[in-house]
Here is the input.
Amino acid sequence: MPETPERCTCGTVLVENASFCHRCGRPVRELTAAQQEELFPTPPSAPAAESTIVIPPQPLPIGFANPIALRVAFLMSLGIMLVSMLPVVNYLFFAWWLLAGWAGVRLYRRLTGLRLTVAAGARLGSLTGLFAFVSMAIVFSLTMASSAGRDMLDQMVKQDPRMSEVVSNPTMLGSVLLMVLIMVFAMVVGICAAGGALGAKFTPPADRP
Here is the structure.
């Protein structure tokens, strides 16, 4: 063990075998590794944080369980109904149905930042067409139940006397109206779905909300 000097550099008389000056705290002789460990223990290393993998939630598929898709489809169906009330413009209903499906995909992309596949775009467009058809069916039913509907049937009979047989037979009239509704449903949903598929296919990758 190295000898302890009599005095510290600060002039204090040191105690025999002292390792530090009791006045200024300066070490007066070289410490061994064991003494350094005893006086200045190495702090325990912090346990390594466990690596965690955060899996982002999967986006909801396009359907009735997706509230954003339902909201977009409903808004687009309202647009179809508003355009159908405008004179002259309403004759372009095929174009508006197609445009509603396309615009619905772009609005969904704007709200969620997700780029839909062609199949998902078609499903979103079909939802738009479904809502639009329900609105049309309600308006059509109310019209047929009113005096305007009876006047329309009378005009049809005047233009084609053979229609009198259909109008006078409730069963036949119901069958004709049902066939008309089925045809309109297929056209509205199909064209809106085609618009949604086109909107998804031609949406640029750089298009972000």
